[in-house]
Amino acid sequence: MQKYYQHKLSSGENNVVVALSDTECGKLFSGDTRSDLGSEAEKMRFANGINDLVVRFLRIEQHAETGSEMLVMERLYPLDYRTYEVEKREILFEVFADELKQLHAQGFVHHDIKRPSSERGLPYDNVFLTDTGIRLIDVGISALRSQVGERVFAKYVENELQELAEFKKYFLER
Prior knowledge:
Blueprint: H1 2-6, E1 8-11, E2 16-19, E3 24-29, H2 34-48, E4 57-62, E5 69-74, H3 86-106, E6 108-109, E7 127-130, E8 133-136, E9 143-144, H4 145-148, H5 150-173
Helix pairs in contact: 3-5
C-alpha cells in the first residue's frame, strides 16, 4: 500500500489516480465503484473515436499493489495557461470549443467541466491545458445520447455550453 500512495496523482470522492509510468496513469476502482469502471471505459472509447479531446483510454487491468480494478489511460501533463499570451489562449479555446461541439454532435457530453462544487477541488479541475491543447479528464458522469435519451441529452448539452462560456471567461481573463 505504501508505494501506491507515493505515486498518487489525484483523488476524488470515489477514486484515486496513480502514475504507472511516464506515459500512463490508472484510475483505481474498488468497492461500490467497480460497476462504474465499464461505463467510464465505454464512454472514453466512444469519445476517443470522435477526436482527441478526452484523455485516451488504453485498457482495463488490475493494480498490482492494491488488487483494485483499474482504468489505464494516457498520462497528461498539465501546463499553466497563464504563461501563454491571450491571443494564443483564444486559439486554444476555439479549438477546444469546436472539439467539444463535435462530441456533442456525435452523442457525447462530458457533463463536468464546471468549477468543482467542493472547496477541495481546483477551478475547472477536469480541464487540462497540455502541450497538445486543452483536454478533458474524468468522464465518470459524462453521458451518451443513446443511454439518456434525446431530451435529457439536449439539457446536458445546454448546461455544458453555459459552462463552456464560463470557462472561456476564466481561461482568457486570468
